[in-house]
Queue: 4 jobs
Job 1
Amino acid sequence: FFFRDGVDPSQEAKKMRRRLVASFDVGSGSTKAEVYQLTYDTSTQRWLVDAEPLLSLVEDVLLAHDLETQSPAECLSESITNALTQAICRLADKARATGPIDVLDGVATAVFRRAKNANEVLERASRESGVSLRVIDQQAEGRLGWATCRALHPDAVLAWDSGGASFQISGECQGELSVFEGPWGASTATAALIREVRGSEFARNSSVNPVSMEECMKLKRLLVERMPDPPVWLAGALPGRVGCFGGGTSAFNVARLVLAADGVDNADVRISRETLTLALERQCAGKSDDELIARGFELQVDMTVPKVVLVLAVLEHVLGDGADVKYRPANGSCAGVAMQLAFSL
């Protein structure tokens, strides 16, 4: 990785030529943290981020689920605020155990753009953990996703990031980075399945499974209907490599697991609409929690089907069949946050 010239670092930092930073990505479904070593390059006067983190951690905190269960869905509950604060404190303590951390910094994404008490929740978490946290808009989230994706997929023309309450597709057009803002994530798609496909009340601790194939198709149509049309710059980048990334509970990894369970020989972890639709029908539709767990979908099993349907909806409406979609694992956009830290030092 490399970054533009920043302000001149302190003489002490120059002498040491190393710094440790902890980057946090407080998402709508999970909170991620990584520790990176930065090395100061005296020839370019830039801080460079090591390619691999010293530590990579994640804790599930279903913030978007919590917000969806509130009536109206305006504020995060006290219980989820407690859970988030405790999770960030644990992650920060583990980060500090790796060595003297110079900076602990993080971003908060989609659910905090909706919750009216977002600032209060983040101020408490920041005060108790010592991590500097800020809400970013969806454009900034897309830029972080682009930086993270390009480190994993150097040949990607588009970066696809999908979380608990939104998704972003980013790409360069005429030298400028553009971001397509998607309105759906895993939790909001799950809520739509329950409320609008089934006409039921959304309850955080109840499972949606089993989900019939008919319900899957109804949900996909609903997601597509409420999704913006792809802009000219995005369509112009296709066909081409679309790099997607995320952790174990990401929609992309779930799609990978479903394809693998269906016997798809997919060493390159490519995701196509046709093969994923068939795998969804054979491996997920009509299956109970226990049946899905037996197939290897134990992480957030209640959102397995909505996640796959969301991937299919984006493939159908935004990317089309010509896109070469490839997944690689990453701990959210922690790498992108570390890049921003290096940029600012």
Job 2
Amino acid sequence: SVTPPSLHDCTLLRRRPLRPLMKFGRVLQLRAIPEWRESYIGYKRFKRLLKRLPTAQSSGSFSPTASLSLREPSELEAPLLSGPYAEVEALFFAALDDDLRRVNEVSVAETESIETSVTLATGGEALLSQEEVAALYCRLAKLRSFMSLNATAVKKILKKFDKNMAGTGREPQLPSVMKRLEAEPFSVCRRRADGMAVELERAMPPDKVPRLRQLAQDALKRAGGGRESRPNVLPLALSLAAGLVVALAPLEAFEQADRPEAQRCLGVLVATVGLWLSEAVPFFATALLVPVLAVASGAVPPKLVHKTGELEQAPDIAKRVLNSMFNAVILLVLSSLVAARVVARCQLELRLAAALQERLRHQAGLFLL
């Protein structure tokens, strides 16, 4: 008999951690299936929404400003709390409903499509070969990973919501909302997918099941699930090789003009475009490679040094190229961006506004000034 696979075995989420203490938003980004990337829960968007809440705690009851599917009817008659809390709460659950709708659409469509194929694979006549069953199992693993990640995203963002609402007199929303999520179509599809995974494994010889799960793991890695941002060696090598061929090939137009630097510059351009199109390395790494390739390939012509009357050497060329890319103005801009990020991260503007409001609550004119 075949042991029914657990959720971690079947969706292949019990893999080596991507990085110690990696934030869930990053995990979601790395493990998202590319063809469904736009249908995942907008985890980072919800985090930004919760950051709009002031740091000072209030009291009172909450309710959304509109009828939201994840709320009890009795809650819709509760009085609204003035201020940003009620606004953020209404936007939060409205956005959650919209994201769940997209998750449900993908889950239902894919589950029904896979279910038809599973019937062919597990029927009495076994109309599918073992290779086709393995491909179907890999497809099912992607779907289960999609639904599992979205369920985890909902749970985690609701925990953050309850944490931000702590001390306001509002009951935690996580238990009640998670209970209602059990009736959502994608939750029903998760249970159906669990059963289909068991059926597919039973349709295979017992000694083939470990190999089947390994194939599904490999399929998830190729699809983007669980892979880190590592260089793709083959596109990287091909892009650099193409640039090298263009830079060194005997092109008549450049030979007649006696401009070898121009041809090398074209080679750098070809290599850079290849890296961008293939995404062999992250975009920021490609951008940083441009000056390195330009100097290493000799695409930057040397200038005459007035003091010595000699042409620049490679270290002098490299220093000139890098100095042109990083100067005091760029440092000022980057410093401003870092300072703005620190202010937003620590919510210093909200803390300052709350402190001024506390001190000047009875002096509206002075507060406006």
Job 3
Amino acid sequence: APLAAWAEQVPAGQENAMIAPTFKTGSPPSARAPEPAMRSLTSDEQATISLFKENTPSVVYITNLAQRRDVFTLNITEAPQGAGSGIVWDDDGHIITNYHVIARANQVRVTFQDQTVYPATVVGFDEDKDIAVLKIDENAITPAMKEANDGIRKNTSLKSASGKAEIRPVPLGTSSDLQVGQRVFAIGNPFGLDHTLTTGVISGLGREIQSGNTGRPIDGIIQTDAAINPGNSGGPLLDSAGRLIGINTAIYSTSGSSSGVGFALPSDMVSGIVSQIITSGRVTRPILGITFAPDQAVEQLGLGGVLVLDAREKGPAWRAGVKSTSRDESGRLILGDVIVELNGALIKNSSDLYRTLDKLTVGQEISMKVMRGENKVDLGLTLDDRPNEQSTQGMFIFPGMAPGEGIPIPP
């Protein structure tokens, strides 16, 4: 019987007794003693744990606050309208994140690993590349915020004798020698969850995505299968040595959650832009000084290139004699010049134009070819710097397109 080793049946002669059988169990097996409090970790696991512990203090949680007026009391209150992650850039308290994380913010607050919270000011941003630079503003800390931070420090091992924020910049790596298949690590605050680590590999290099802020293409993007979810934006993508190689910025997903295709801005590009913003508060980028038609409109007209709608007065294109789109006395549309070549590069659409401009510099003298009716015209011009006023951007809405579908270019 299966239970023979554990029990004996009732004595002989009582086999037919109408009673439930009884068992003599003897000594039950002793309960298993707990294993000693030691866990064997592989070298890879130990390296990952060490990387997370060393870099977590360099990752912050960013809250975007907006002012809202109560419809009944008319009182103005501040409410969170967005959140994301950020990276401690240097010992001066500069924080790097995505522009879309802090867009339209009335106030920005930064939460460190020890849960202390500090106000931050926006030093500058680059909408086209989705990068923003913040700086911790300890002079703007409120009494309530200071009291809460002091209380946290009394109950944590992460203490600061000066009462200031614990600043630990992330180690900066390079994105110039990355390889597909290389292991990467993403740290951030997805869905508001505090300091989450995901791992994966680089699954593609040199990708191109469109900026969600301006529609301008961003080249050289890193593609990874490390899980990136809402809230990870602005967080670091690290190599196996814990060095920054990218800033997580977007996902490709139909559901809004990670589907194994995430994108990060390469650290070499980020470093150059951040240096400009910290030094001058803005990014220097060359412009032609035009407003142009959306690519869909140009295709509908059966043209190839970039159709100029307007050349800003005294701008580079205006000085070179570029013709704008206009109407005659009868109201008929007279198409302007169509840019087909810029400094030797063939221009088929707005992405080609943006991509070529990114390789040029302010003050550079370049050549440009345009189609003016049936004729091709060669022009020479000198590129200007982009104006500092964000409100001067132009937008053209072609009939049949919804508002907002036009792609602006600073005039």
Job 4
Amino acid sequence: HSRNTMDSSLLLAKPSPSSSSRCAKISIAVNVALATIGFIAVASNGAPAQLAQPVRAANPTTFSAHSMAGMSQMGMSAMRRPQQQFNFAPMNRPARHSMKMQAVDAPVATEQSTTIEEFLANTEPKLQKAIMGMFSACKEIGYKIRTASCDKQACFNAFGDEQLAIDVLADNVIFENLRASGAVATASSEEEPTEVPMGGEGYSVAFDPLDGSSIIDTNFAVGTIFGIWPGSKLTGIKGTEQKAAGLGVYGPRTTITLAVDGIQGAHEFLLIDDYSAKHGQWVLSQSFMTIGEGKLFAPGNLRATKDNKGYEELFNYWYDNQYQLRYTGGMVPDVNQIMVKGKGVFVNAESKAAKAKLRLLYEVAPIGYVIEKAGGKSSDGEQSVLNIEVVGTEDRTQVAYGSAGEVDRFEQLVGKKFL
């Protein structure tokens, strides 16, 4: 029995390490380290870009024979990239950002989105050409604005062999595109308010090539306004006779909000600039059908409050009732936000000392057409701006755009009684 016990202890005893076994282990460890360094050097010099990224520090990891074999099968990329852990908020814990995302049905342009060409497929052919002339011009203007050089006086960019002020350049670009459409008989720009023959036939276009040009150097959003009338003249007409109108916005995104006779609502088109399959195309991003009540206001020409008691009272109403002030000094983005937010009012009132500056043909009537198609209301203090006849290209008027309730308040408090 004792002999058996002794034999068992001898079998279980740990053999004492020899010097040769210690050397072998050291040699193996050195070889593994050298091989790892070699792999990293090769990856950083000749491997694809995704493998040549800096190696991030990782928590200490214990490697077994099994894990080393697994890494060898996964390849060098897996060995150099430690696993990352992602922390997700529990579903039952309120997360502010995720709650906002769930509450907003944000417009998303995809490769299946409707293009402007598809949207206009059933529109009268010459009207299509006139509209597409404006879309082509706005695409070019948007690029010229993004790449313009500015000083404290103006912004400039190349137009052919010339360096032109950006508003003059925009004017030239629009005239060129309308002339090329072949569907425009007459065009007139706010820059030079005369009726210019275009050589085509079918429609006439009035436009403000770059509304807000004085704030481009600050990198605020600016825009283009246009209205399209049938025939060959731009006087003796009313806003109700427009066949289409639009607002181009050059901001973080380049968009055009378009309203077309016979198509319900106003519709925003986004210029795709992401090198996708639709790069360079205009795609439908959202549609506007209603403008509701809400405490958002954009007050223009506030100097008029000094001698227009009605405008002063209206401003105090907004202030006392804690309306949100959203005003940049660019008429296009200040009006466009009313459709995007679905609420609010834009007002540019006048007085005896602070006369109206906005021109009926180039700004007021086209925007009024878009706003009313979007479900809002417009007024000069007594009636819709679309009912005012354009007697001359330089006709000017005060105006309010927005929800029905806000425009009614403008008519009640301001109207024309202090002019």
